[in-house]
Amino acid sequence: MGAIAAAMQPPPPPEVSGWAERNLSFDQGSPFPGPYDSSRFPMLRRIHEVLSPDHPAREVTVRGSAQIGKTDALIKPFLGCIFDMAPRNTLVVHPTNTAAAEWVRSKWMPYRRTNPRMRAVFGSSAGQLDNMGYQETLDRTCSLRTVSAGSPSELSGTTRPNVVMDDLSKFESTALGDPESLAVSRAEAFEDAKIGRFSTPMITGACRVSHAYQRGTAEEWRMPCPHCDHRQALAWENFRVDEDDPGRSHFVCVACGAEIEFKHRDDMVAAGEWVATNPKGDHPSFHLWRAIMPFRDWRSIAVSWLQARGDAGREQTFFNDVLGLPYEAASDAPGWEELRNRAENAVEAVQKGRIPTGLPILACGVDCQGTWLEWQVVAFGRNNRAHVVDHGLIPHHIGEAEAWAELDGLLKRRWRNEAGRDIRLDRLAIDGGAYTDDVWTWAKRHPWERVSISKGASSDKGPIYQAQKFERRRDGKVKRRQKRAFMVNVSALKAVLYADLKKEDPQARGFQSFAAGLGDAFFRGLCAERRILKRNRFGVMESRWEVIEADGRNEPLDTRVLAEFAARLAGFRSATDAEWDALEAERDAPAPDAEPDLFDRPVTAAPASEPPAPTPASAASPAGASDLAARFAALRKG
User: Fold this and answer.
1) Span 455-511, pLDDT tens digits
2) Which domain holds residue 415?
3) Which Gene Ontology molecular function entries are recorded, alphabetically (predicted)?
C-alpha cells in the first residue's frame, strides 16, 4: 500500500531551487564540489523562484559580476527544471556565433552528459537530429535552440515560449533589426512565457542589462551590520582598500561607521534579503556581485582595484567584471589649448623628433586619406605612459609609388632619444578600412611583425583588438595573413586615451606628454571628438563618437589610436617589469660616442596645420629622410 500511495503522489511543482537541490551537482573543479546546497546561496532562492515556470513573472533580469556562477547556478538549473518538469521549446541567445558555439561545447554538452536528469531527457549522447544549434529531447516534444544575436535570420525564424539572453550587454543591432527585441518577440504569442536576461554590464548609458535592471524592481541584497544591525547593501563606495595589506580591506557601515570585515560576510549574507529600490518596476531584476557571493574573498576585490587603478581600460574591466556595475567612460578630451600649453610650457620641453628617457617602445600610426597620408610616432613606457614624438603628412595617395617610398622611409628612419641612441619603429599600424587593396599591396612588402593593418570595429563592445577573419584553407586553418590584419576597437581606445589626457601629474599612471612644436592643428585634431548617447533606429541607446571641430579634421586622434594599437601589439600593455628593465637598459643607456643625427628630421616638409593639396602621381617625391636613411642603413649593413 505504501508503494501505491507513493506512486499516486503528485510530482513536486516545477520550482528551480527544489530541482537544483535534488538534481544539480558541481564537479571537482568547482569551488563547492558536490550536490547543490541552497544554504550556501541564499541570495539565489528568490531568483530561482521567479525563474520557475509556475511563477507569474514574464521577465527576469540578473545583472552581476563575471565568474560568480550565473551560468552554473542560474541558467543551468533553470534549463534543467524546464526540460525535466515543464518541457517547452527554449531559445538561448549569445552575442556571437563563437560565443554560442563555445557555450554549447563547454557548458551545455558537459551538463547534458553528466547530469542524470538531462541524460534522461536528451539521451546519453547527441542524437541524429542534434547539432550545435538545435537539440531535441528524446520524446521529441521540445527542443533547445542556441543562436547568435548577430544572426537576425536565426532569431526571426523560430517561436519559443522560453528565451534566455546570455551576456546581453554585448548584443549589437544590425541592419536587419535589434537582437534583444527580436529575441523577446519570439515569445510574444505565449501568455506564460519566461524571458531571462543575464549579463555583466558595460558602458553607462548604453548598457542593455542595466537598462533592463533599472526598468525592473532593481533589487539589492541587504544585510544587517554586525555592529548596529542596520540593514544595507555592500556598496563599492563604502569599500576601503588597504594598499599595504589588501587582506585587511573592508566595508564601512553607512549607519555607525564601524568596519565590516570579511569574517562577518557569511553570517551577514545568511541573514540578508532582497529589497526593491524600484518597487514599481515592471519585472523582477537583481544585482549580484562578488562581495556577497561565496566564491572569492574581499582581498581579491582590493587586489583587482590596485591593479586596475589609473588605467581606464582596466578600470572598466574592474567595474564590469568585479563590481558588476556599468562604467562611466571618458566622453571627451580636455581643451586642446590646455594640451598645447602643457607641451610648449613644460619645464623640460622635448623638441619634436626626440624621445624622452624611459619610453623605449616606439610605434607609429598611419591614416589614409584621398590625397595624403598622415602619420604619428609615439613613444611608450611602463605604467602606460606615452609621449608624442613626431607627426607629419605625406602628400600622396596610398596607391602612389611616392607614398610607398615615404612610408618605407618611416620604417627605416631612426629617432634619437635623450641618451643619444637612435631608435627605429618597433611597429607601424596603418588603417586598411579605406583603399584596402592599396594598403595591403604596400604592407605585404614588409614583415608582419613590423607592419600591421587595422580596421575599426563598429562598437566598443568587443575586445581591444582581434585578428580579422579570412577564408580558411582546405585543412581548416586560417590563412597566414591573419597575423597582419586586425579589427580594432577604436571606440574603447579613444575612451582610454581621453581619460589619460586629463591627467596632469607626470608621475601618474597613463600620463600623456607631447613634443614641443607639434602645432595647433595637431592638438585640435587630437581633441576633435566626443562620445554621445543616441538612440538607433530601433530605439536602443548606443554610444557613438562624433567630430565636434568645425573643420572636421580628426586625423591626429585616429593616428594616435593607431599608434596605441601598434604599441599594444609590440607588448606595451603586457610587458613585465623585467622586460621593461631590459628595454630601458638597452635603449636608455648613454650611447658611446654619440654624434648628431644627420637624418633626424621629418620625412616630409609638408605642414601639419592643414591637409596638403593633391599632388600629381607623376610628381617627383621630395628629397627627405626616406632616401637618406635607406642609404645610411645600407652603409651600416655593409
Assistant:
1) 987 666 678 888 887 655 555 555 555 689 999 999 889 999 999 999 999 999 999
2) 336-469+480-577+596-628
3) ATP hydrolysis activity; endonuclease activity
